[in-house]
Amino acid sequence: MFPHPGNEVEAIPRQAKSPAIVQSVARGFDLLEAVASADEIGLVELAHRTGLQPSTTHRLLATLIACGYVVQNPQTSRYRLSHKVVELAGGQEHRMQRLRTAVRPHLLMIRDATDETTNLCVLDRFTIVYVDQAESSRTVRMFTERGRRAPAHACAAGKAMLAFQSSDVLADLRDRAPFPSLTPHTITDAGELEVELRRAHSRGYAIDREEYEDGVLCIAAPVFGSNGEVLAAASVSGPAARMLRQDLSELGELVRGRMLDVSRELGYEPTTDTGTPAGGAGASPATASA
């Protein structure tokens, strides 16, 4: 089997400079993540981990406590997450399970039609997260653990979802170029990635030609919610030499069609010939050839 690379690479630095970012909110989330990193943690250590002044850390902690997301142990004065955070995570997990349940039969259908591994992924800003998989029966096949992350610019599922993001998100993405290179085929230039995303938007699916891992080819298409927002993407991947023996256009249409069926089940109503929303990368005045 071919596992995906063990060294997970974030697509770009987590916090790029942007006039839309509210610094105090960003600091609050950094602090919340630092609190989550331990069972209980003290003020000085939190300040050290976040790079904040102790006085700033204390004020942010007081706000998080008032909002119910952090509690302070009255005996040790140390901090920990509250059950409110667990409740929020539980709601997200419930929604994720509903998504997996809806997509799973289609993952199996694509896997059975191709005998290649299929995956379900979601987008976390500019990183994808693998949340489900249907393995191929072949001896040489792809395998990726649930929960593994990968930079969105370097893989088909990521590009399929990025292609339908808002203009603000795409502008933020462009500002983070050049993007990390994982193989000689990874797209690192912002202009080249824009062309690739317009192409993915136009045809309704994206292709990763050994951009994330040498010798691996992947095709992915997005899943849309009732409001036309991108919820996830499903992909089919295998050794490049074997995948290239198939008609990639037909394979792309297979994945796109199945994910459009899922989208309809979730309340999405197509408004274009390809069944995809009109916004995102396709809103650019430039055009790209398929």
From TrEMBL:
Domain HTH iclR-type: from-to ranges: 22-83
SUPFAM superfamilies per UniProt: GAF domain-like (SSF55781), Winged helix' DNA-binding domain (SSF46785)
Domain IclR-ED span(s) in chain numbering: 84-268
An MF annotation (GO) of this entry: DNA-binding transcription factor activity
PROSITE patterns according to UniProt: HTH_ICLR, ICLR_ED
Keyword set, alphabetical order: DNA-binding, Transcription, Transcription regulation
Region (Disordered): 267-290
Family matches, as Gene3D superfamilies: 3.30.450.40, Winged helix-like DNA-binding domain superfamily/Winged helix DNA-binding domain
Pfam families, alphabetized: HTH_IclR, IclR_C
Biological processes annotated in GO: negative regulation of DNA-templated transcription
Primary role: May be an activator protein for the gylABX operon.
Protein name (Swiss-Prot/TrEMBL): Glycerol operon regulatory protein
